[in-house]
Amino acid sequence: MKMLLPFVAVMALVAAALMAVNVANLHFLFGVAIPYIAFAVFTAGFVYRIVKWASSPVPFRIPTTCGQEFSLPWVKQNKIENPSTATGVIIRMALEIFLFRSLFRNIKAELRDGQKIVYGSDKWLWLAGLAFHWTFLVILVRHLRFFVGDVPMSIAMLEHLDGFLQIGVPMIYITDGVILAAIGYLFIRRVLLPQIRYISLPADYFPLFLIAAIVVSGILMRYIVKVDVVGVKNFTMGLVTFTPVIPATLMQGNGAWFFLHVFLISVLFAYFPFSKLMHMGGVFMSPTRNMINNSRMVRHVNPWNYPVHVHTYEEYENDFRDKMKAAGIPVEKE
Amino acid sequence: MYNSGKIIPGIIIFLAIVTFPFWSNAGKTNVKPEPKIDTPAIQQMPEGERKCIESKEFMKAGHMQMLNDWRDSVIRGGDRVFVSSTGKHYNMSLQNECLRCHSNKKDFCDKCHKYLAVKPYCWDCHIEPKENKS
Question: Which of A196, A222, A264, B54 is the most buried (most CB within 10 A)?
């Protein structure tokens, strides 16, 4: 059920887009209105989530330490895993963001011979995760050729490198194959490992299915159904220059695939701020990763400390001096 | 909000990146490329026979596939005869057949290829046509 629901949802989205374009002729709604709304929801929602997170105080230094902290001169500090300087934190964050350092530590526990529990390193998730995220980024950047008038050298170079193997025409992109394999692994892992399947929710499957559908529709358009690519760029450039046009070549025949692709991406964008995909912004705000471990050097004041009204002993004695004297209690000031 | 000294620049960078397609195209107009088919060779053809070897739609979507097949057929199989869907025979040759009519690479091939940043590797081996620029 946890898997079926998101699958049905994605299939319903696919059917909705194809029906809307092929039967109801809602090209403007699905091609122009929904993408603009989705983009607005994405940006506003993203900023809202970040600001909301930033409103939570992080009063204490809680860096997870994976190495020797800064101490005495003759004790060698691990400057990256347990940074005491901003540079160290920047390197640690860069390793986290670009290479998923934490995931590299992933460990698998297994019962051997019935009773004995053993722990071993498990790099497959890290590898597939890295492959997935990097290919997704390359694919996203590659798509800029549809959103920039004169395509800059850097984007053309990236595309050239991606088609480096020169297999077939149009040249098969390496990333297309890699992202399918990575999504496949990430999905199969959730299904085959009982522990992972147990904790997987519809919100885990939905983005996987949605991204898979986006990738498949993109691959179909490029290699198989051959959507009019000049029309596609004419369309996307219309969107980004706020003069939307829907070329006639996209209104007929296999143009529906393009609207399907655009609609699924719009759904992904609109869904983004409400989902676990927000880890894109969240990774920068991981308190255990982005804090300098300098608790012993700098005083960190709790931000919600408020001035407490203190009633000192001196004031107390002033209030009760007479009574104290009468009872024979010694006082500091006569 | 805490750490606004870092959060606000971060949000500004985020917004600058995601709105890149919008601000980088600000003030530009969206011009669709129109490949020209008015070369002398095409204009000499009688009005009714001004056709490419296959339909326009087919060529638009499949010319790269066709050229690739031609290359394999000629270089690897030694077979230079192409039979079109209408049964006509053509010489499989980029320089001698395609470019005979489409002699205007700059105004024909390059129009869409430049628009979409496509760099076909035809001209790694073939000689690029030297167009008479008057």
Answer: A264
- Which residues of chain A have a CB within 8 Å of the CB of B65? 169
Rounded to whole angstroms, the maximal C-alpha distance in chain B is 76
E strands within B20-99? 81-83, 89-91
Q: What pLDDT digit, counting tens, does each position of A150-163 carry?
A: 888 999 899 989 98
Could you give the C-alpha distances from A11 to A5, A14, A262, A308, in angstroms and in order? 10, 5, 15, 59
Rounded distance between C-alpha atoms, residue A10 and residue A26, angstroms: 19
> A304 Cβ partners below 8 Å, 6+ apart?
A57, A59
A156: which residues sit within 8 A by CB, 6+ positions away? Answer: A145, B117, B119
Domain residue limits at B114: 33-124
Buried b or exposed e, range B39-53, using 16+ CB within 10 angstroms: beebeeeeeeeeebb
- Per-residue pLDDT tens listing for chain B (134 residues): 888 899 999 999 999 999 999 999 988 888 889 898 888 888 888 887 788 899 988 898 889 999 999 999 999 999 999 999 988 899 999 888 898 889 888 889 998 999 998 888 888 888 887 765 54
CATH of the domain at A225: 1.20.950.20
Q: Which residues of A touch B (CB under 8 A)?
A: 39, 42-43, 46-47, 50-51, 54-58, 144-149, 151, 155-156, 159-160, 166, 168-170, 226, 228-230, 233-234, 237-238, 240-243, 245, 247, 281, 284, 303
Q: Which residues pair with A118 in a beta bridge?
A: A110
Picking from B11, B33, B64, the nearest residue to A47 by CB comes out as B11
> What is the ipTM, given to two decimal places?
0.89
Report residue A192 CA to chain centroid gap.
24
Work out how many domains chain B is built from and give that number.
1
Domain of residue A12 covers 4-327
Chain B residues lying within 8 Å of A166, measured CB to CB: 121
* Domains identified in chain A, total number: 1
Let me know if residue B48 belongs to a domain.
Answer: yes
